[in-house]
Amino acid sequence: MASFNKLCVLISSLLISVLSLRGQNDYKSSDDAGRISLVTFIPEKLSGMTAEAKDVLKTKLDQIASKNGLGGNGVANRFIITPSVAEISKDISATTPTIYTFNLEVTLYIADGIAGTLFSSHTISLKGTGKSDTKAYISALKEIKSTDKSYAAFIDEGKRKIIEYYNSQCDFILKSAQAQADQRNFDEAIASLVEIPDVCKQCFNKAMDLSVAIHKSKLELECQQNISKAKVEMSKQEWVAAAELLSLYTPDMSCYSDVTAVLKQINDNICAEKITKAKAEWAARNTQGALKFLSEVPPNSACEADLVALLKEVKDGQCAESLGKAKGAWSNRNSGDAARFLGEVPTDSNCAQEASALAREIASKLDADAKARWDFEMKKYQDDLTLTYKKFEASERQSIRDSQLDAMRIKASRDVGVARAVNQPKSVVYIVPY
Fold first, then answer.
1. Which of 31, 140, 181, 360 could covalently link to 126 via disulfide, CB atoms 3.0 to 4.6 Å apart?
2. What is the pLDDT of residues 256-273, one digit of tens each?
């Protein structure tokens, strides 16, 4: 654990920058990569159905799946919602113009399209009329209402069977993924793991753990190559890009010592850069700008002493400014503004005692109701100030970056699997369950 934390220290300053860039492409926890997903599959041969009618039917099935939380935007393509259509009757009127009438029986199936296993089915009767066969047929299909509550049991049973599939096949899926990884087919292995929906909690958690391990094996093979790429980025002073290439390596990898040496160089450069920018902001008396850059200085780094010194200077400056404003507000007997400005005075700044004395003076001259409001306001402002400065504590910065690093590792594994699954050829041959 100590060695792991050491690595976190070295790369900690990079993680916020990396995450701020990568976070723009985050997959939502219960969205694309996490939910049960169905592929709408329209068989080539459906009785009397034109291409236009198939498009209408596909749209209807997409809507039914989407409205019931089984939309086909996920990475899995194993499970399908597919129809069969039976023509019950066809009537042609003797009138002019001729009117065609179709009575259809459409059965919807949720199934394992790879194995051809039926999970659930639902049959609906439709009627449509039109001035041609095609128009009458499409008219009937348009009667499918995606919001109809009668689909609930059909969908729920399909969901249950899909969850049962993953729960019963979990060990096999994990072993198969490990076998792929052993053959260095890392992306394929991870893709099969990220297909598991998060509603299958136990299997999902096992799959995420394995995907992280497999992704680590993938990184191990790519490590030296990424070190070279990182050095190229460093030569261009692209510190964040260099860090991103190396930020997921751990002490148990053979290239760990090489990675930490390069990360130390990156860390030192970012450290110096943040302090320089913070000093420039403070020289312009931009307190918030200075604090922003100081908060990005790595914990326990070579710049920690510079951070402490400059932070003290900023706090003393903030103290003098806020105390002056508080005195002005109180001279006008505006206790509310005085409380706000006194609440901005850091308790460890050089005028903190004077600020406390003023606060006591003001409180002593207020009636009971005003005193209660004063105490409440002071506590609120001081609590806000405590939160503002807490992020500068080395232990707090380290804790945040440790948790961010763990999240990055899991996300990196999922991103690999999602990208592989999304980009793989869509040449799956489905077996319909009827």
1. 140
2. 899 989 988 888 888 889
